[in-house]
Amino acid sequence: MDIDDFIKTYNEEQASAIGMSGLLVKSTNVMKENLEKLQSMGIKVPILLGGAALTDNFVEDFCRTIYDGPIFYCKDAFEGIEAMSRIEKGDFNTDFGRVKIKEELKKPKKEKVKMPDFKDISMPSRDILIPTPPFWGRRVLEADINQIAYEWINHKMLFSRAWGYSGKGMSKEEKQKQRDEVLWPLYEKLKVEIEKKGLFEPTVIYGYYPCRSDENSLLILDEKRGYFSEKDVNTEPLKKEDITHTLDFPRQERKPFRCLSDFYASDRDDVVAFTCVSAGSRFSEYEKELYAQGKFKDYHLIHGISIELAEALAEVAHKQIRLDLGIAQKEGHALKDVQMRAYTGCRYSFGYPACPDLSDSKVIFDLLKPEEFGIVLGDTFQIHPEQSTTAIVAHHREAMYFSI
Fold first, then answer.
1. CATH of 3-106, one of 3.40.50.300, 3.40.50.280, 3.90.79.10, 2.40.50.40
2. What is the pTM of this model?
3. Which of 13-17, 86-90, 138-142 is modeled with the greatest confidence?
4. Residue pair 226/210 in contact by the 8 Å Cβ criterion
5. What are φ and ψ of residue 399, in 5° steps?
6. pLDDT tens for residues 1-37?
7. Judging by beta carbons within 10 Å of its beta carbon (0-12, 13-18, 19+), is residue 218 exposed, middle or buried?
8. Which of 275, 268, 269, 212 has the alpha carbon at shortest distance from 245?
9. Residue 321's closest CA among 300, 349, 293, 343?
């Protein structure tokens, strides 16, 4: 929902509070933008924040520092109820008494290390074979991935993060009983419902593009430069007209001072892969129906599985890329062969620390043209349908997630 709709409803209803939830990391950037907009308008209404993407430290460092009104970070529904009870009584104490977190927040901040000159930063190994993709440009995955996607769902994340079944305070036996008697039957029931109603309409678009790194930037080059053998690789200095898009990334302020662009070659053409996937628009339509009917639990369950299906599609796309590039030697050689860990390369989504700028999604949209499949980029760079995501894929064997 756009922040202007929040503000309009807040003024019309004289609301006591505004709530925002972030299930995906990319939504936290929008939360910050919304808080900045409210602050600029002089609005100091109590804010309730929640969702799996948030942490106490994020709220403390990036939200409370930019908004003067009270911010309640609610880790679960019970804290949400407690927050509203306090607000109704005029009590704006946002402390829920999380002792461990309070101790963490009191820890002194680590001093930043002086950033060395770029030439003095140790780069990832250059002793690697840069793969040659089977094609250049974009392609739509034509495989029947409806059932394959379910194989790639991270059920632990679905049950605990999306559905909220934490098992906190339970014994090992009780947790297993909950999974066997509650969660797995519920999951199978929803699969049948999704199939019956035709809600899951997966789209997977991916593509390969020549590129080179330039310090903290990744230069995307014309696909016509694509090579199919080592002797065809372009090693000539780049001209301005060779570059079609530029992605700028932040660099770590501590050792090893890593930047996402470091995983690509600078003295020759390399290959970068982009993906855009979607579980389809019918999930959002059905969720609106459930919400309008007051079936909030059903809404919550369907929404959770639809988001995890989108993430599963992103995993499927990444697996296809590893197969294409010949870097799946340690894995099964079929899309259905699930490998969640210890694979070669890394997939980064915009909004995460290594590539935090959501507006960079415009590059992927320019290249992959997902609008042809009903996938669009909103004014705040959120993707619609919500059950969609984009990514940049690095093939380098040392590529990994890192914080800035």
1. 3.40.50.280
2. 0.79
3. 138-142
4. yes
5. -65, 135
6. 677 887 888 888 888 898 888 755 566 778 888 888 8
7. buried
8. 212
9. 343
